[in-house]
Task: inverse folding
């Protein structure tokens, strides 16, 4: 997701309504099985100190393994992101890539574990162990 900085500095405010697909390379080393396309809605603006300010809502769904059965579980998330973006772009670059900033905030929402709703926990056992409720 790229923002044209020339347009941003000319208008001082750009509304964002995007569906973003996070590449699998971002989450292949995590517990996330899949990440459905996320919806990003809000705006990006220039404040009084000429800083880039991102005010967006990020909604999406993780697909995670159940901590007990390892079945796939849908886990919805909803993030209100209000962040000042440091000016790290090089002179002469006219685009700002927001994907890494979005990902940094999305990955913080991954729960340590999830359990599938209505999971039958009766008679869960293995060799030398059993679940006693």
Result:
């Amino acid at each position: 997701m790229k923002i044209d900085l020339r347009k941003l500095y000319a208008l001082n405010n750009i509304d964002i309504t995007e569906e973003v697909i996070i590449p699998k390379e971002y989450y292949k080393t995590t517990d996330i099985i899949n990440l459905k396309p996320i919806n990003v809605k809000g705006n990006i603006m220039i404040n009084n100190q000429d800083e880039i300010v991102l005010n967006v809502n990020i909604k999406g769904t993780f697909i995670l393994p159940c901590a007990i059965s390892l079945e796939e579980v849908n886990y919805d998330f909803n993030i209100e992101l209000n962040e000042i973006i440091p000016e790290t772009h090089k002179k002469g670059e006219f685009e700002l890539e927001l994907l890494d900033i979005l990902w940094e905030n999305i990955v913080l929402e991954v729960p340590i574990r999830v359990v599938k709703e209505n999971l039958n926990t009766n008679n869960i056992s293995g060799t030398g162990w059993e679940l006693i409720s």
Observations:
- The chain has one domain: 2-130.
- The mean pLDDT is 86.
